[in-house]
Write a structure and sequence with these properties.
Layout (H helix, E strand, L loop, with lengths): L1 H53 L10 H14 L8 E5 L5 E2 L3 H7 L4 E6 L12 E6 L2 H5 L4 H60 L2 H4 L2 H36 L1
Antiparallel strand pairs: 1-2, 1-4, 3-4
Length: 252
């Protein structure tokens, strides 16, 4: 019954631990998702800010590559994205420009973040709209760098919870085993004492018999039996006491 109760308790605690791990996993995923959305939103706002500077509801003017690069970096820095690497291209029929690594970065990995923004209103003579294209390589890794400590903290907390659970399991298991051993020793001692107790009881009753009281040899015989069985019971008690003390030392 005790073993079943212990198993139930550990199963219950295990379910709680699994629930905590699931909550942590969900929370970390939510933080990562929100971080990615936040970085993407700030990038879009940075592009809008640059576009507002270079045009106002007009076709894209002639903009030098170095000036556009400077405007983008300034806009990124204002939003805490100064460390973000990027490549850009201003696709305009009047004056197209692109950063040196734009074509390579765009083709290198289709998973790179690519943002496009229409600039102004296309002139009647233009067949296509003017576009500002921004490519951010490895943007997920870059955006999630700030969440590294959160993930490490979550992992550390999980390990601590697991360690506490495992340590508690070992401690309770040892205590349960000690309890079982002591219970078994007590049951064994009871079994060992049943016979001498019965013998002592019979001998004591015999000494109360009038016939025995008048026979010195029988009195001596029954006294020897009682002394022998008492000695035997004392030995069993001492064995149990010694075994209990040894187990207490090991448990400590």
């Amino acid at each position: 019954m005790a073993n079943n109760s212990t198993r139930f308790k550990f199963a219950f605690v295990g379910c709680i631990l699994a629930g905590i791990l699931f909550i942590q996993y969900s929370w970390v995923n939510l933080v990562r998702k929100e971080k990615l959305e936040s970085v993407r939103f700030q990038l879009v706002k940075s592009i809008e800010h640059v576009v507002d500077k270079i045009t106002l509801n007009e076709p894209a003017p002639a903009v030098e590559r170095t000036i556009l690069d400077k405007l983008l970096r300034q806009s990124f820095s204002q939003r805490g994205l100064g460390h973000v690497p990027f490549e850009f291209s201003l696709q305009s029929s009047r004056y197209p420009v692109a950063s040196p690594g734009f074509n390579n970065k765009l083709a290198a990995n289709p998973n790179n973040l690519t943002l496009q923004y229409v600039i102004g209103q296309p002139a009647p003579a233009h067949a296509t709209e003017d576009l500002l294209i921004l490519v951010v390589p490895s943007w997920r890794k870059m955006a999630l760098n700030d969440t590294t400590w959160i993930m490490l903290g979550s992992i550390l907390l999980t390990l601590m919870i697991g360690g506490i659970f495992y340590g508690t399991y070992i401690w309770v298991s040892r205590r349960q085993q000690l309890y079982n051993n002591r219970t078994a020793d007590i049951e064994r001692m009871i079994q060992q004492l049943e016979t001498p107790l019965s013998t002592v009881s019979v001998a004591a009753q015999a000494l109360g018999d009038a016939k025995v009281l008048n026979d010195t040899e029988k009195i001596t015989y029954y006294q020897q039996i009682i002394n022998k069985e008492v000695k035997r019971m004392n030995e069993e008690v001492n064995k149990l006491r010694s075994a209990t003390e040894d187990k207490d030392v090991i448990d400590e």
